Structure formats: C-alpha cells, structure tokens
Amino acid sequence: MKMLRAHRARPFGFTLVELMVTLAVVAILGIIAVPNFHTFMLNQRRDSVVDALVASLQYSRNQALNMDQPTTLCAGVSGVPCPGGAWTGGWEVVQQPVSSSTATLLTTHVLQAVSTVPAVRAIDGSTGFTFAGNGLVTFTPALAGGDEIIQVCDARGTAYARAVEINRAGYIQSSSTLGQTPGGVALTCP
C-alpha cells in the first residue's frame, strides 16, 4: 500500500513559480507604465500653462469690462506692474484707472524655472495685452497684423506644441490640435 503524503501548508499560499510569474507581470507593467507616465506629466505641464494663460487673459478682459478700466496682462514677473520681458518667467495682470497714474497689481502667475516647464513665446513679439472697458485689446508693441499667437512648446518639439490666440476684438482661444494654432496654421518651436 501506498502511503499518502500529508499536505504541507505553504507560507503565503504561493509556490516559487507563481511568485516568479507575478513578478514578471509586475515588471512588464512597470516597463509599459513609466514612459507613459512621463508623457502624461509633460502633457499636464504644457496644458496647465496654456490653461493658466487663457484664464489670465479672460480674467484681464473681464476686469476691464466689469470695472470699465484698462486692464493689462504683460510678460514678466518682477513685482513692478507690467515690467515687460519674457513670457517664460510668467506674467502679471495690472489695472490702471484712466484718472490715475498708479497701476494696481491684480494677480501674478510665475512659471518655475525647471527644465520640464514648457517655453512660452509670443510669435509676433507682443509683451502685453491691454483690454479696454469695451473688451477690445491693444497689443504692446503695436502689431501690423490682426492677431497674436502665444505658443507653448516643450522639449518634444512642434508636434506637441499648443497655442493661444488673441485677436483685436478680445476673443481668446486655445488650440485643440497639437502642433497648430487655433486657426489650423502649423506652429514652429525654436
């Protein structure tokens, strides 16, 4: 007669083969997830800059309409209203009543100086947008054309760039198609 072996309880209920298969599946998922997570983070950073810029432009226009006073969004952040400068550092929104020479700083948006923050650039070189009490906008410096495009590019280049367009009537829109302006014109990142 054969003797039946007693079944020994395994700690944690796993055999070595089951454990190896589980570790292999986890490793494969990790290899797939890490690059996708990096792309997700770059997309989020780019989109958050575009969204913040659109929100600041809309806030500027609404303040001008509500208060019937010129309100300016300008490039640069220095604590002094409308310093002018580069968009890559951020921007400020200031309001200057017609009857006063003193401007009031309404809000500031600072972009962190790290390698993964997208570059922001006005294609025609505008450093500011002044919304009048009627909602119309003037560009600083004055532009010969009708619209200004601000493009947001990261290290991945033109194929992943987005843009914000501001026209003289004060209409603000962002591109939904990567690599193009809201009007469908191809962007070129430096």
Any overview of this molecule?
The chain has 190 residues and is of the alpha+beta class. The chain has a single domain, classed as minor pseudopilin epsh domain (minor pseudopilin epsh fold, 3-Layer(bab) Sandwich), CATH 3.55.40.10. It is 27% helix and 24% strand. The protein is built from one helix and nine strands; from the N terminus they run H-E-E-E-E-E-E-E-E-E. It has one helix at 16-67, and strands at residues 71-75, 90-95, 104-110, 119-122, 128-131, 137-140, 147-153, 162-167, 172-174.
Secondary structure topology:
Elements lengths: L15 H52 L3 E5 L14 E6 L8 E7 L8 E4 L5 E4 L5 E4 L6 E7 L8 E6 L4 E3 L16
Antiparallel strand pairs: 1-2, 1-5, 2-3, 4-7, 5-6, 7-8, 8-9
Short descriptors:
single chain, four-stranded antiparallel sheet, alpha+beta, five-stranded antiparallel sheet, elongated, 190 residues, minor pseudopilin epsh fold
Q: Mind telling me the C-alpha Rg?
A: 26 Å
N-to-C span: 84 Å
Count up the domains.
1
Mean of residue pLDDT values: 83
Question: In what order do the strands lie side by side in the largest sheet?
Answer: 3-2-1-5-6
Overall number of strands: 9
Strand percentage lies at 15-25%
Order of helices and strands: HEEEEEEEEE
Largest sheet: 5 strands, antiparallel
CATH superfamily: minor pseudopilin epsh domain
Q: Low-confidence parts, pLDDT < 50 over ≥5 residues?
A: none
Number of helices: 1
If you consult CATH, what is the topology?
A: minor pseudopilin epsh fold
Structural class determined from secondary elements: alpha+beta
Overall geometric form = elongated
